[in-house]
Amino acid sequence: MANSGPSAARPVQKRRLRLRYVAGTLVLLVSALIAFLANNGDQAPSVQDYYSSLESRVGYWLLLGNTRHCGLYEKGQLSPFPVSKAQRAMEEKLYTRLDLKPGSKVMDAGAGSGYVAMYMARKGFNVQAIDITPHHLDDARKNVKKNGLDNKIAVDYADYHNLTMFQDASFDGIYTMETFVHADDPAKVLRNFHRLLKPSGVIVLHEADFSRNSKVLRDVLRLSHCQNTLEEGGYEQLVANAGFQDYSLEDLTDEVLPLWRLFGVVGYAPYQIFKLLGIQHKFTNVMAGVETWLNWGDGRYISVRAVKP
Ligand SMILES: C[S@@+](CC[C@H](N)C(=O)[O-])C[C@H]1O[C@@H](n2cnc3c(N)ncnc32)[C@H](O)[C@@H]1O
Ligand SMILES: *[C@@H]1O[C@H](CO)[C@@H](O)[C@H](O)[C@H]1NC(C)=O
């Protein structure tokens, strides 16, 4: 038989060699990709460092089209798709929670690439968008211009810890969409918001509060510069201390689960490999996605509303 004779050994060996060559190249390529996408492993990055890492840029772009907030789904829904529809639903939720008249002046504190600001502008608000991450500000300016909303939205660099450039009692509403979690001094930020609001002005904060029960979640919070985000139940006192009244909280945790489940499922296998290699902290977003999903219930997604008397 041809394949048992000595003349068959050669082609088999050649094929093995080719296989080894292909596998080697693949491993090299994957390693290069991992090294390329990994962040620098900083244990306590700044907000700008966190958002500027290639892992964040590629991750947010791929999964969320640079709209950096959760989607709102029907309770019990399994599929996270279409993600953009659920994100619009979350923006609509924030809009209705603001409960302000068209023509109101609102601040978007931590506007990212400007998608929430554009939603609010289309609803008839005049929006002052602020952020501290340079490439987000560039993006927001481009998006606002492209959509012809320059007369409804101003985009400026400002840190919500320091809003001295804005006048007292000059806003009807101030909102944050998943940005207040990054605050170093949450009480100070709320005092700033209070100063900027007119009497009867409102804040709406779509944020998270967390128990600090697990070390890995504390790591996730620090690596995404959320280390000072509030303990579960902490908002009510903080908001009252800043001088706000009529506190209301909606727990939306169940309604944001589908997207986090997607992060968890998509990230699970890579995360296990990163853990084996001991480099999981260089993939903050993969780690955050998987660990938040695995520890679902150790944190809440909440919509907080309060009024300046
Ligand atoms: C998760 S993103 C949300 C962006 C936007 N709200 C959205 O929903 O697409 C958080 C944003 O908050 C901004 N941010 C964090 N700390 C801030 C601060 N101290 N002052 C202003 N913006 C801040 C970040 O730069 C980032 O753009
Ligand atoms: C606050 O912001 C203003 C201008 O926006 C700036 O001149 C001032 O130095 C800032 N203060 C601090 C403490 O960073």
TrEMBL record:
Q: What InterPro entries does UniProt report for this protein, alphabetically?
A: Erg6_SMT_methyltransf, Methyltransf_11, SAM-dependent_MTases_sf
Q: Name one Pfam family in it.
A: Methyltransf_11
For the biological process aspect of GO, one term held by this record is: methylation
> What keywords are assigned to this protein?
Membrane, Methyltransferase, Transferase, Transmembrane, Transmembrane helix
Transmembrane residue ranges: 21-38
Cellular component per GO, a single term = endoplasmic reticulum
Domain Methyltransferase type, first and last residues per copy = 108-205
Keyword Membrane in record: yes
- GO function terms (MF aspect): sterol 24-C-methyltransferase activity
Q: Which PANTHER family match?
A: HYPOTHETICAL LOC100005854, ZGC:194242
In which family does this protein belong, per the annotation? Belongs to the class I-like SAM-binding methyltransferase superfamily. Erg6/SMT family.
Q: What is this protein called?
A: S-adenosyl-L-methionine-dependent methyltransferase
Biological classification of the source = Eukaryota, Fungi, Dikarya, Ascomycota, Pezizomycotina
